[in-house]
Sequence to fold (527 residues):
Amino acid sequence: MEKGRRLLFWAGILFVFAATSIVCLEAQGLDAQAKAASEARADTVTIDTLVAFGKIELPVVTFYHDQHTDALSKQGKDCASCHEKDAEGKLSIKFKRFADNDAEKIKGIYHSACIGCHKEMVASGQKTGPLDGQCRSCHTVKPLPSDWEAIAMDKSLHYRHVKATGGDEKCGTCHHQYDETLKKVVEVKGKEQNCRSCHLAEPTVKSADLTVSSFDQAAHTKCVSCHQDFAAQKKDTGPAKCAGCHSAEDQAKIKEVKDVPRLKRGQPNATLLVAVVKDKAQANIGPVAFNHEKHETYQDNCNSCHVGKGSMDGKFFELAGDMHQVTNMQGCIGCHKSKQEEKQVCAGCHSQMAEVKAPSKTSCAKCHDESLKAFYVDGVVPEKEVVAAKAAEVLAGRDMKVVTITTEDIPENVVIGTLSDKYEPGKLPHRKIVQRLIKDMQGDSLAGYFHGQETLMCQGCHHKSPASKTPPKCSSCHGTPFDPATPNKPGLKAAYHGQCMSCHTAMKLEKPVNTTCDDAEGCHKKK
Fold:
């Protein structure tokens, strides 16, 4: 009996010792992980493959890819240490395998390969990652933050890749289509598509013979492999590590080509926009003459305006939703509104305009040309060459200069003294303000086309009165005290301050700021 108690006592001691050792090992592992990556990183990879097989015992693993790449590089090793190559020499983005078919096999690959590598490094006297027993060092519930940023293949970056890979005749370096007969991907000249047209967020099973990889898989396999090949040939190339593409700091270092040559894929220079329903043109309101070439310079890619699938041979994708909706940033009105908000000189007036879902019918004629309906008799769509020629003719006749009244018709100063009590009347440098707005708008085709009336710009401040060189005073509408029954019509004091201060805020004016009342740079001087 006494012997049994002693055995139980020592068994308890051993259990406590083992538990304490495990906790200490875990703590050491977590501490090492924190020291290795104490700040947000762009190379954070979540290893959650086993989630697809069912419930998992421990939290998913947070893996720091560049940290491991750097460690392997110091040993003279490369990506092939962790990633298998297929028959064509392309790296699999999966760790030590090509497919995910068996949960236990995948688990065994990670544990044996990762811990095995760490053991080898310990044996050679090198610092390394977690070993047996330090499970929570990898399976942590509180991973370190990621500052990963998506990277876009904009026009500049695309052009640099075109030049680096051999020019327009080498589009097949990246672009391809799957040939059902040959059972492989091939280049189809002139019909190159956006990568995401085929490679979606998740792998797509097309048939027993074809599974289209996800966009992430395709991009990393193609891009990283190509960058490595160029590096092996001692050529200038892009990054092969996560941070090189996905950290904000490194993205800011990417060289930008300002004047990118136009990428021609059969798209028109000019065309007439008209709705087509069941192959019949709906031209009752008049088509819109549209400068396609000019608009290309404002956008990074075709998907900025077009959606869906299509070929890059002039048969473009459908337009993205209602072109008139303010909320549709891929439509005409929505895009124009966003440009008004981005440019400070525009924001001063346009930020204060009432929000509407669609423009008024009276403004339709600014874009829709009734005279062009004759090109679509009985809804028949004419040849694209005819349409392009007519659109070019209409566009050539447009005056894109900002129109305004002459200097003599702009009052030099306006004295605001109606409410003068504790302060002297405010003196507004009216002409100086107007001329500065005109100057800042010059050269902007959007402002030029839509400000085609000489007194239109005056409406920014004189918003409810008829367009005129001699608009009525603000007090003609705001002279009465505020009435809750008409909440959109403030009293005179609120109207003055709301109009002026809102404009200063929208235009981000530093002098005077909208809270400066009575100092040397303010609007009011104390009596």
Remarks:
- The longest strand covers residues 44-47.
- Residues 9-37 have pLDDT under 50 and may be disordered.
- The chain is about 35% helix and 10% strand.
- The first helix runs from residue 2 to 36.
